[in-house]
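Box 3.1 A note on notation
Throughout this textbook, protein chains are presented in two layers. The first layer is the amino acid sequence; the second is a token string describing backbone geometry. Keep the layers aligned when reading.
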Amino acid sequence: MLLCLGFSMTGIFGCSSHKSAPGEIKVRHKEIEETTTPAPEPTETEPEPTESDPTDAPPTAAPEPTEVDNSKTINIFCYAAEMGEMVDLYKSMHPDCEYDFVLTEIPSSDGSYQIALETAVAAQNSDSPDILVVDEDFVDKYVNGELSEYVAGYDELGIDIDVEVKDAGIAQFVVDQGTRESDGKILALAYQSYAGVMIYRTDIAEEVFGTSDPDEISEICGGNSGSLTKLLAAGDKLVAKDYALTSGLNDMWFIYDAQDPSSWYKNGDVYISNEHESFFDFADTLYANSYTNKNPYWTNEWFDDMNGTSDRATFAYFAPAWLIDFSMSSMAPGTTGLWNITDSPVNFTYGNLMLLTTKQAAEADDEKREVIADFLTWALLDTTTDGWQYQFATGYLNGFCQPCTSSVVMEQVTMYSDYLGGQDMAPIFNRANENTKAGVLNNDNLTIGSSFVGHVKDYADGVCTKTKAEESFLGSISEYLKS
């Protein structure tokens, strides 16, 4: 059964060049370059004529082409094309590496990737992945769930992971997301940080609050306070000047839920906790005080608010860096240079891409295991200017400076954004890394949460009563989980 979700993951990858066409599977083979001796230049001397001799032996057959040594391959399953660019850079920096990287890239838009990955991991054959890429929303299945038995800790590759993580200053929420509860092993890490911030209009801030300084706006809106009280007080001042605090209800969900994250499950069944039920009252507060324009995610009206072309301008959005890089910059060019970022009142994360390795890789021969360990160390833990985190943070991909998970790297880079009026994003995203908590992870959290927000919106819009909204939500989610 299909659910009508309140928002879409398209905002993370669909607005970038990171996805293939639906249903398409790409296998990318990184061949080792071979050197060849150039053919001699032809001479201008005309050869003397010769008579054919019927006893001459037939010409020698050309040698068979040398086959690729399949024992020297590293299989990577991924859904983001940037993995290919990462491998290209690694190979160029490590010309002595004799291993080929075989990338199997499958789009994640319709669930195809998750199905294919689960099947490949459990198969444990020559086509199974040595390295796999998993979205934060599904990683718990591989860290603590039924597929954990196929996943290896980084220490099993010979990486002194506890020391390396500390030395690199990897954000604690990322470490917690990737740590198996049963034995404390770190199984998954990320290079890109999806910790969220508040993205606000500087011109509106100047008019309403008399300042657009990020630190002052953080204080006014309760940055890093863990509470939404100051933000709503700021909303009163915005509404008085005929501005919306946020575009819609969805914009407030992640920061509201992160105040006190609660599991959606009780005794194995989906239920509505007191914390989640209170979102109904919060929605009433937002609507009654005209804090939002009531626009759902990814609608034309939502982008109009972002672009400054709607009847009532919106002051703030709450999101990780991808919203700026892949949505706002392309969909809202009319407000280029009018935005800044500052601390979110409540810290949250949304959709980390995480790298894991398999037991099969950890049990490979010493040489292959060392190459895999070296690649993962370079991608996730290397804090030098040659490491992937530094390259990523300074704009190697797409020309965008993007926050990484290493505080050591974040403290040595500047991340200027033209869309943010030349603001250096690094200090604020580094604070977001430090203050964000892992929260409750579950493979169905994204679907459940988005469905819940949709039903709360129906209630807030007067489509149904609170009781009907709760019943409809629980019924639709139960059917979904059975399918």
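The chain is about 40% helix and 10% strand. The first strand starts at residue 26 and ends at 29.
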